[in-house]
């Protein structure tokens, strides 16, 4: 397996072409095993993955502390290669409820101060607000990250789930390394306006949900039981008829994967990798087994015939159901 590198935009860092998204190790997809999560981060670093993605609100600091532990216990040579992408801004309460976003400059600096402590690092490589705060102009939020950069606490500004207008306003304020946004065979909305905009402005993409949260991994099934606090228990794409329809797309993909001697997850990740050198997929592996499968995608080459077959099996907009429940869709500047 060969993990090459890609550059996040024209001003961002060189990172492994696949990043590790650590969210599922703490939240949203049911219970995870802490020791296995730490071992997965170590295995990813050993395999050449340098980009680790987290958010301060993933189980209210739990995910950052887990990454902090993984970095502390990794060999120094690997720890030094790790680049941290951190999201902030989502507000929680002690019950875990979500209560909006805060992008005010004082809040940005406060969030960063706590994240640095929990992660046990002296700087964050890419720092971004998870969702646009509708009450705070993006220029102010990005400006505050700019001040953190001047002081050495942050290296680059990133964005998350924002649309073309906000991307332009942010890019007029400071150099933007990347936009983090959902992109997969069944979430192709960014192809219309957002991807042309980031390409025009020299901004990279860190793509999340490349397996649509496991839906198109080839491992999900109709009878899978989900805990009430699992995101997928409330996600439109995982409900009843929608799920049944979406899994037929996966079976179509499985035929192509089998012909190539690879897995469904590898085809799905390789497809995102094939969309352009400016795109870095984040894989949400939380066990070493899943990680090994995901990284195997780096060695899958899709030729024109493969891409045409994939397009036929899973046409753009083929998925049934929105990518988030309605209340969360409303927070997505990228969907307005
Ligand atoms: N900016 C944003 O708004 C935003 C939103 C969501 C996520 N993210 C970031 O993006 C990262 C990735 O997102 P995601 O977790 O939704 O992505 P994903 O890779 O689409 O989904 C991960 C899920 O797929 C399942 N899976 C099955 N086979 C897998 C394989 N071979 N490799 C990896 N996963 C496999 C895993 O379930 P099992 O473990 O049960 O097998 C896991 O729960 C997150 O960790 C987070 O850092 C950002």
Tell me, briefly, the overall form. globular
What is the H level of CATH, i.e. the homologous superfamily of one domain?
NADP-dependent oxidoreductase domain
Give the cofactors and ligands: NADP nicotinamide-adenine-dinucleotide phosphate
Strand order of the largest sheet: 3-4-5-8-9-10-11-12
Number of strands: 12
Oligomer status: single chain
CATH architecture of one domain: Alpha-Beta Barrel
Q: Spell out the helices and strands N to C.
A: EEEHEHHEEEHEHEHEHEHHEHHH
Distance between the termini: 40 Å
- Based on secondary structure, the structural category is alpha/beta
Keywords: Oxidoreductase
Protein name: Oxidoreductase
GO molecular function: oxidoreductase activity
Task: Briefly say what this structure is.
The chain is of the alpha/beta class and 336 residues long.
Q: What would the keywords be for this entry?
A:
single chain; 336 residues; alpha/beta; TIM Barrel; 12 helices; 12 strands; binds NADP nicotinamide-adenine-dinucleotide phosphate; Oxidoreductase; NAD(P)_OxRdtase_dom_sf; NADP_OxRdtase_dom; oxidoreductase activity; oxidoreductase
Give an overview of the whole structure.
- The chain is α/β, with parallel strands linked by helices and 336 residues long.
- It has a domain at 14-215 and 275-300: NADP-dependent oxidoreductase domain (TIM Barrel).
- It contains twelve helices and twelve strands.
- It has helices at 34-47, 62-72, 76-79, 105-119, 138-150, 164-173, 194-201, 240-260, 264-273, 288-296, 304-313, 326-329, and strands spanning 5-7, 14-16, 19-21, 51-55, 83-88, 90-92, 98-101, 124-129, 154-160, 176-182, 204-208, 279-283.
- The strands form three sheets. Strands 3-4-5-8-9-10-11-12 form an eight-stranded parallel beta barrel, surrounded by six helices. It has a two-stranded antiparallel ribbon with strand order 1-2. Strands 6-7 form a two-stranded antiparallel ribbon.
- Helix 5 packs parallel to helix 6 (164-173) and helix 8 runs antiparallel to helix 11 (304-313).
- The structure holds NADP nicotinamide-adenine-dinucleotide phosphate.
- NADP nicotinamide-adenine-dinucleotide phosphate (NAP) is lined by residues 21-24, 29, 53, 87, 130, 160-161, 180, 208-214, 217, 219, 265, 282-286, 290, 293-294.
């Amino acid at each position: 397996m060969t993990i090459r590198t890609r550059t996040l935009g024209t001003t961002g860092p060189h990172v492994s072409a696949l990043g590790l998204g650590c969210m599922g190790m703490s939240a949203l997809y049911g219970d995870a095993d802490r020791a296995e999560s730490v071992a997965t981060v170590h295995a990813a670093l050993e395999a050449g993955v340098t980009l680790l993605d987290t958010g301060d609100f993933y189980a209210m600091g739990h995910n950052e502390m887990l990454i902090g532990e993984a970095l502390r216990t990794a060999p120094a040579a690997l720890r030094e290669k790790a680049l941290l992408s951190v999201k902030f801004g989502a507000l929680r309460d002690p019950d875990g409820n979500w209560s909006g976003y805060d992008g005010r400059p004082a809040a940005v600096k406060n969030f960063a101060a706590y994240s640095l402590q929990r992660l046990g690092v002296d700087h964050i490589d890419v720092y971004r607000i998870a969702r646009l705060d509708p009450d705070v102009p993006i220029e102010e939020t990005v400006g505050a990250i700019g001040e953190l950069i001047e002081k050495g606490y942050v290296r680059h500004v990133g964005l998350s789930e924002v649309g073309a207008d906000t991307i332009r306003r942010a890019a007029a304020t400071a150099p933007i390394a990347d936009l983090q946004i959902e992109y997969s065979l069944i979430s192709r909305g960014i192809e219309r306006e957002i991807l042309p905009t980031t390409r025009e402005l020299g901004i990279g993409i860190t793509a999340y949900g490349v397996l649509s949260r496991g839906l198109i991994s080839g491992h999900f099934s109709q009878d899978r039981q989900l805990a009430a606090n699992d995101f997928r228990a409330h996600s439109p794409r995982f409900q009843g008829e929608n799920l049944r329809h979406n899994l037929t797309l996966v079976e179509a993909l499985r035929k192509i994967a089998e012909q190539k001697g690879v897995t469904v997850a590898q085809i799905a990740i390789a497809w995102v990798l094939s969309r352009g050198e400016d795109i870095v997929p984040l894989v949400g592996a939380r066990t070493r087994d899943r990680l090994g499968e995901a990284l195997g995608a780096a060695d899958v080459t899709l030729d024109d015939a493969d891409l045409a077959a994939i397009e036929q099996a899973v046409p753009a907009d083929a998925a049934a159901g929105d990518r988030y429940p309605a209340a969360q869709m409303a927070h997505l500047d990228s969907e307005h």
